Amino acid sequence: MLRVHFTSVDLARLRMAARPDALWETILSFHRLREKQAENIFGEWRSQTRARLNSEPRLLAPLVPQRGYFPDFLTPSEGVIGVEEAMEAVRATPPERLRSEISQLPAGRPLPAWMRPMANGDEGADRALARLVDTLRDYHRAAIAPYWPHLHARIEADRAARGRALLDGGVDGLLESLPATMRWRAPVLEVDYPVDRDLHLDGRGLLLLPSFFCRRTPVTFHNPALTPVLVYPLEHAAGPALVTPARSLVKLVGSTRSAVLQGIGAGCTTSELARRVGVSLASASQHATVLRDAGLLVTLRQGSAVLHTLTPLGAALLRGGSPGERPGAPGDRPAPPSADRPPHRPVVTSGTGPSPRT
User: CA 217, CA 233: separation in Å to the nearest integer?
Assistant: First the structure.
């Protein structure tokens, strides 16, 4: 068990990540790719992803073992800003940090020749790091990017649930609403964990980060000097967790409007929708208007912005009429504005694979 000890200052500094973390999802999905469990949930995603991959798994495996420790620099705080910002942060990792963190990998598995300059601080470390970043980017494009709207919507739905719990019950209500792997017994959050451990926040606060590809138990950092973070798994239904939009839906409304429906999730503004779908602000507004006129979404004004949410008809169309969770519903309350605005610089630290590191 992991025991997270809060002070009154830590409770005031508890926060939810404003959006999914591109590199956390990338690294944790690499664990899901190589395991055989949860075939009914991740099986279709594995098949589709493997068909798009080349040498990326072989190149990444030495740095990301199937279980246990992997270096913290692979999941920088910029991951909640965007994938390119995160890649640049990895590329900017200082040589001394590379050496320190890579040296903690299991000794029984020697590093390949191309990776050794990073571990030893030798000439060529910059080229090796650039190759690693290119490999991470290629893996992300194959494993994460095609599913990002759906992944984003599921995480937004979880954030909406936590936001409602916060509005209804305060910080205690938020912590009590977390998945069953975490239990709030004030002032300690007890977390299912493979080893017995205590984490004293000491006034630093805690960042809660829901993750689509985190599985079984939550994950925390390896380096105690990094800002405290707790990555916890979303709860998945029994069916496939990630599939590309149904072909029938794409044929019916077009690929862009299909992506717009996926991107709305539990609710978003027009600018957020444009970022999720990868279109201009004007295009996002135009597609939202067409879908709203068709009764597939509703739009409410919040101050100077507007909030789009799916109608029951839109949610049913998105899931093809099949049973299961819908990405969002008009009755789902979005996270409170304070939870949707991160601090000046969103902070996320890195962590572990399926078995969190000791």
Answer: 7
For the cut 90, the answer to whether the pLDDT of residue 263 exceeds it is no
The whole-number pLDDT of residue 337 equals 36
Spatial distance between the Cα atoms of 275 and 263, rounded to a whole number of angstroms: 9
Outline where the chain has alpha helix (H): 8-12, 22-34, 39-52, 56-60, 83-91, 95-102, 116-120, 125-143, 148-176, 247-253, 255-264, 270-277, 281-293, 312-318, 337-340
**What average pLDDT is seen over the chain?**
83
* Tokens, residue 213: 């590809």
Q: Does pLDDT of 144 surpass 50?
A: yes
Q: Half-sphere exposure of residue 295, counting CA atoms within 13 Å on the CB side?
A: 4
In whole angstroms, what is the distance from residue 188 CA to residue 205 CA? 13
Three-state secondary-structure class, residue 229: strand
DSSP 294: T
Are the C-beta atoms of residues 44 and 240 closer than 8 Å to each other?
A: yes
